[in-house]
Design a protein that fits this description.
The complex is a heterodimer of chains A (about 350) and B (about 425). Chain A is built from twelve helices and eleven strands. Chain A has about 350 residues and is α/β, with parallel strands linked by helices. In chain A, strands 10-2-11 form a three-stranded mixed β-sheet. In chain A, strands 1-8 form a two-stranded parallel sheet. Chain A is elongated and about 95 Å long. With about 425 residues, chain B is mainly α. Chain B has one domain: Up-down Bundle (Formate dehydrogenase/DMSO reductase fold). In chain B, helix 4 packs across helix 8. Classes of the chains: A alpha/beta (about 350), B mainly alpha (about 425). At the A-B interface, helix 1, helix 2, helix 3, helix 7 and helix 8 of A face helix 1, helix 2, helix 6, helix 7 and helix 9 of B.
Chain lengths: ~350, ~425
């Protein structure tokens, strides 16, 4: 009977390939059908094994160890869970880089809300902040990952579409432009944390938005949600030269990241939560960057929010950034040099101090 | 229970039996599936760097196909509503095929999301810390899996009843049919909200996205079924009435008209206002800063959609070759418009105004083809075992001799007679 189906029906009724269910359900096993079935099954298995051959190049650490697999979400870890996770990461760093890192889990300080202010009149677009950030935060050199993007903007607009991301100049600043560095704005109403399906990214009590690199599943929904293009994804295994590793690191900030997860600026929390300044601020040669605790009325950022005409990017999307921009009351130096420069008074003073409500 | 296992075993065995055409088709699909597995293995080794995606365009071909397939799955409801709400019984016997296709489409959609994950090894984190109800993605996980289970239950129950030669108990499936109707609309609405809820992406941040999703799905889904039902009729002898196809034609025509109208609304708002939001639409339709990657694609899609719509409007489309041509155009047109045409432009320019284009890599295309082939393989097997059951050729009492017509009529009233398709088709 089986053979009859295989060869088509002889009785003249119109029937197609899928119609003759009746016989198939009770196939007589003949030598021929058995051999055919066995050959098919073997061939199929062989083809599947061949298709999976690329997996033999899988790096040893690509699959999670049992410890990693069972590791809990950051917020659910007990002190001993954290110790175990830190020990594992420490051993991994020693193994890969030959140094013992000063790795810890730095928690937020009480009564602190961080804010950043950036003086656009001073920024000269030298990108030293970008390089300092890459070094401090152990960002991948290949493929390149950078948290800070500096836009070269034509005078007279804050329309980001008109910025040049890839300016190459022998000397900066250029007299026709001003420079707008953008990094994570650590929004008070962050759209990125809202969309994460596994809560691998969240806002800490001191206002910093962090990522648990061991929890992220790599769906990149947060990257789509961010209005400031502040998030970066590890599309490939991040590469850091052995001698370039910064061994001063913490769990939620600059420890080496695995492939396939998100990362972003975290206001150098391993420094700032211990009273130091972010690396980008220390690297700035013109003092354009200011950082501090907005809850302390004497802090420099508090003073700036009070006295300068600060604004935030894309205020209309309702993200409430804690990264503020401002221009000095005086005109930028480049314009002072050529006092006839047209349109200078219009530059970047559209906002009142409305953003300061945060 | 034992009967059920025997049923499954018989279905399994049946899926390996067929004529040369069946074997050829299954062999072809298996080869494409294996190529897809091979490509995914490569991606698993090097990471998502194997795709054309970047930090600038962080979602691409996978998510585009995912979106399209969620729509196809939702479209099964367009067969169910006429039957169970409007008592239009010309489609009654075809509902099962629509729902089986929904199952296959959901399986494909879930595979596409999985292929897009950077850390598939951490999939279980979804179960351990489910960010519900805040993240729309968690809603999507619930509605997609729920819809899969609902449809598996409804068609599984109906088919098993036919196999047992029992009339299905209405209590066991009618309530689920109505839940599934609402649920189908929810899967596509929730998927649209994934995108529409992002304030930082003006191209998506529009209330018309969800209605547009539904309209295009209700056009492309039934169009796909018009084609597959003809193939089923031709190859199995299962009777598909001309009236049923014409009902589907009406649904496709109306849905497509609404879809084109909504696209026009979107285009008007963008281009007449000429606000800063227009940049993405500008890139999609005309190119931006000298980059035109999607322009030929979207105009092909618009051309296909309009021609398909015109064919559907004129009486010629009552004839099956014209109807099939229109459906084929529409399926491709909507695939471009709702897939790449909807996902990729939202990333161009980036929120900081950088224009970086995206082209899928060969590896990405192979993974995508593999998932499509797997879905078609699953659907073919579903149809392969369902047709003999529904026509009474495969029942619990054992196989009936395969010579003919008499066996089917009494067990499955309303299902046609073996080999009678020439009267109703063509």
């Amino acid at each position: 009977m089986t053979i009859r189906i295989w060869e088509g029906k002889a009785d003249g009724t119109r029937s197609g390939p899928m119609g003759s269910g009746g016989c198939a359900s009770r196939p007589g096993v003949t030598r021929r059908s058995f051999l055919r079935g066995a050959t098919g099954a073997l061939g199929g298995m062989a083809a599947l094994v061949a298709a999976l051959r690329p997996l033999k190049d899988l790096p040893q650490d690509a699959l999670p160890s049992l410890d990693q697999f069972l590791q809990k979400h950051y917020k659910e870890m007990s002190a001993s869970d954290m110790d175990r996770a830190l020990a594992r990461i420490r051993a991994d760093v020693e193994d890969r880089f030959g140094v013992t890192p000063n790795l810890r889990d730095v928690r937020p300080m009480e009564g602190v809300q961080f804010a950043y202010a950036l003086n656009l009149s001073r920024c000269i677009g030298c990108r030293r902040c970008v390089h300092a950030c890459v070094g401090e935060n152990n960002q991948s050199r290949s493929p390149e990952i950078q948290y800070i993007r500096v836009l070269e903007m034509p005078r007279g607009t804050i329309d980001l579409d008109q910025g040049n991301h890839h300016y190459e100049r022998a000397r900066v600043p250029d007299a026709e432009h001003y420079y707008l560095p953008v990094q994570c704005h650590q929004c008070a109403n962050p759209p990125c944390t809202k969309v994460c399906p596994v809560e691998a990214t969240w806002k800490e009590p001191d206002g910093i938005v962090v990522v648990d690199y061991d929890w992220c599943i790599g769906c990149r929904y947060c990257e789509a949600a961010c209005p400031y293009w502040a998030r970066r994804f590890n599309f490939a295994e991040p590469q850091i030269p052995r001698d370039k590793l910064n061994p001063d690191m913490s769990y939620l900030s600059n420890r080496p990241r695995p492939r396939g997860v998100m990362e972003k600026c975290h206001f150098c929390l391993h420094r700032t939560r211990e009273g130091r300044m972010p690396a980008c601020l220390e690297a700035c040669p013109v003092g354009a960057r200011k950082f501090g605790n907005v809850l302390d009325p004497e802090s420099e950022v508090s003073q700036i929010l009070k006295t300068k005409r600060v604004f935030v990017l894309k205020e209309e999307v309702g993200t409430l950034p804690r990264f503020f921009y401002y221009f000095d009351e005086r005109y930028p130096r480049a314009i002072e040099a050529e006092p006839t420069g047209p349109g200078a008074p219009e530059i970047g003073l559209p906002g009142s101090a409305s953003g300061a409500g945060a | 229970m034992k009967d059920y296992l025997v049923f499954l075993a018989r279905c399994f065995r049946l899926s390996f039996v067929g004529d040369r055409l069946y074997y050829g088709w299954m062999f072809l699909l298996s080869v494409v599936v294996l190529l897809g597995i091979n490509a995914y293995a490569k991606q698993f080794v090097v990471g998502l760097a194997a795709t054309g995606m970047t930090d600038q365009v962080s979602w691409g071909f996978y998510i585009a196909n995912f979106t399209y397939l969620v729509g196809m799955a939702a479209a099964a409801v367009m067969l169910v509503i006429p039957v169970y709400v409007y008592k239009n019984h010309s489609l009654h016997d075809l509902v099962v095929f629509g729902e089986l296709f929904a199952v296959a489409a959901i399986i494909m959609a879930l595979l596409f999301v999985t292929a897009d994950l950077g850390r598939p090894d951490r999939f279980h984190h979804l179960l351990l810390r489910f960010h519900f109800p805040v993240s729309m993605l968690t809603w999507d996980v619930i509605v997609l899996n729920g819809y899969l289970v609902l449809n598996l239950h409804i068609c599984g129950y109906l088919i098993y009843c036919a196999y047992r030669r029992r009339a299905p108990s209405r209590l066991f499936y009618i309530p689920f049919v109505f839940i599934a109707i609402v649920w189908a609309i929810s899967i596509h609405t929730v998927t649209a909200f994934l995108y529409a809820g992002l304030g930082g992406r003006p191209f998506w941040n529009s209330a018309v996205i969800a209605p547009r999703f539904l309209a295009s799905a209700f056009a492309a889904g039934p169009a796909f079924l018009i084609l597959t039902l003809q193939i089923i009729a031709k190859n199995t002898g299962y009777v598909v009435s001309h009236r049923a196809l014409m009902t589907l034609r009406n649904i496709v025509t109306v849905a497509m008209t609404i879809n084109v109208f909504l696209l026009g609304c979107e285009a008007f708002t963008e281009f007449y206002t000429q606000s800063a939001h227009v940049a993405s639409a500008q890139y999609l339709f005309f190119g931006l800063e000298g980059r035109h990657g999607l322009v030929p694609w979207i105009w092909t899609a618009i051309g296909l959609n309009l021609v398909a719509m015109l064919i559907l409007y004129v009486p010629a489309s009552r004839r099956l070759p014209w109807l099939s041509a229109a459906c084929a155009m529409l399926i491709v047109g909507v695939w471009i418009e709702k897939g790449m045409g909807l996902i990729v432009p939202a990333f161009i320019p980036t929120p900081l105004g950088e224009v970086v284009e995206y082209t899928p890599t060969l590896n990405e295309v192979l993974v995508t083809s593999g998932i499509w082939a797997f879905g078609l393989l699953v659907y073919t097997i579903f149809v392969r075992v369902t047709v003999p059951v529904l026509t009474g050729r495969l029942t619990i009492d054992g196989p009936i001799a395969d010579d003919g017509a008499d066996a089917s009529a009494d067990t499955a009233p309303g299902h046609g007679v073996w080999g009678a398709e020439s009267e109703v088709l063509g």
